[in-house]
Amino acid sequence: MGGQISKRRSLSAEKKILVDLSQSSGSDYPGSEYHPSDRKNWMGGLDLEKLTIRNIIWPGTHDSATNKIGIPFVTRPFAQCQSLSIYEQLVKGARVLDIRVQEDRRVCHGILKTYSIDVVLNEVKQFLSETQCEIIILEIRTEFGHDDPPEFDKYLTQKLGDYLIHQDDHVFDKTVSELLPKRVICVWKPRKSPAPKKGDPLWSSGYLKDNWIDTDLPSTKFESNLKYLGDQPPVSTRKFFYRVENTVTPQADNPILCVKPVTDRIHGYARLFLKQCFERGIADRMQIFSTDFIDADFVDACVALTHARIEGMV
Fold first, then answer.
1. What is the DSSP letter of 234?
2. What CA–CA distance (Å, rounded) separates 107 from 66?
3. Is the pLDDT of residue 54 over 60?
4. Burial class (CB in 10 A: 0-12, 13-18, 19+), 251
5. Which CATH class is domain 2-310?
6. What is the per-residue pLDDT for 153?
């Protein structure tokens, strides 16, 4: 009982820290007033001849394919991190997808399964067929505790075919206009199978890095994200993508184990985080920004900073 009281006090204090920081700092940063007119085609609304891969602020989703995971009202609330389908997330503006698979090519989150990876890839291809200039980073990893799907690299290459942007360090310096009509950077992270090599259609795990901080305390996650981001080289010199996740996750020592009410503790502070990147001199490190339950304002916050970069405002 004493542990629960202490945890509630810690949580209350951490919530207050973010509220106070938001009130004292605000959430406006260079270009933050910009809003894309069409989120489905937001890259196409920017100057594609200036828009280099390294300078994009990529809005992403965490545990992207969990909209139908588990049993509704039973196990789903404990594992669902997105309520929208893959296609709907892309239309909303997401451009980085985080997909976990197991040996039978079904998407999973821990021990819970959902639909086949075919559903993900078909919805990605549907979106690509309806747009012309949008580039996607598709991260697919074998979930912890599972084996790699057999010959999965061949399967991904066959399914995505001509859309794939091959693994090449020079891609970071290229503009979207130079890469088109190629549209997908697919990062494949197997547990035991051979990793993709330079020149392959797929990208190896070292090209998408992050520092996962497993906590349900919002200020702890917020400050840890800033610390680890500050440890990274600027995007101008990096040859890998770095992701910051604007999420907190349920913990076993807390009675609230459903994802939505826990992650809501930090969800609304995405713009504050970007503002703090400027305040602390690390805005030039930002690249991939991911969230649970992606919404329009989160996308707009990322697109606004992207627009500011290519227009020389930062």
1. P
2. 8
3. yes
4. middle
5. alpha beta
6. 98
Instruction: Report CA dihedral (67, 68, 72, 74) to the nearest 10 degrees.
Output: -80
Using only C-alpha atoms, what is the Rg of the chain? 19
DSSP calls for 85-146: -HHHHHHHT--EEEEEE-TTSEEEETTEEEEEHHHHHHHHHHHHHH-SS--EEEEEEEPTTS
With a threshold of 0.85, does the pTM exceed it?
yes
On whether the CB atoms of residues 114 and 107 are closer than 8 A, the answer is: yes
The upper half-sphere exposure of residue 217, i.e. CA atoms within 13 Å in the direction of its Cβ, equals 16
For residues 79 and 104, give the distance between their C-alpha atoms in angstroms, rounded to a whole number: 19
Q: Where is 241: in which H helix or E strand? A: strand 241-245
What is the DSSP secondary-structure string of 176-229?
HHHHTT--EEEEEE-SSSPPP-TTSSSB-GGGEEE-----S-HHHHHHHHHHHH
Q: Where are the domains of the chain?
A: 2-310
Residue 308: enclosing H or E segment and its boundaries? helix 296-310
Identify the pLDDT of residue 245.
98
State both tokens at 22. Answer: 């938001």
Q: Which two tokens stand for residue 140?
A: 């697919």
CB count, 10 Å around CB of 204?
Answer: 18
The pLDDT tens digits for 160-173 are 999 999 999 999 99
Beta bridge partners of 184: 136, 164
Cis link prior to 77 (omega < 30° from 0)? no
Q: How confident is the model at residue 8 (pLDDT cuts 50, 70, 90)?
A: confident
Q: What is the pLDDT of residue 2?
A: 56
Are 32 and 238 spatial neighbours (Cβ–Cβ below 8 Å)?
A: no
Residue among 165, 127, 137 nearest 39 (CA): 127
Cβ within 8 Å of residue 154, ≥6 positions away: none
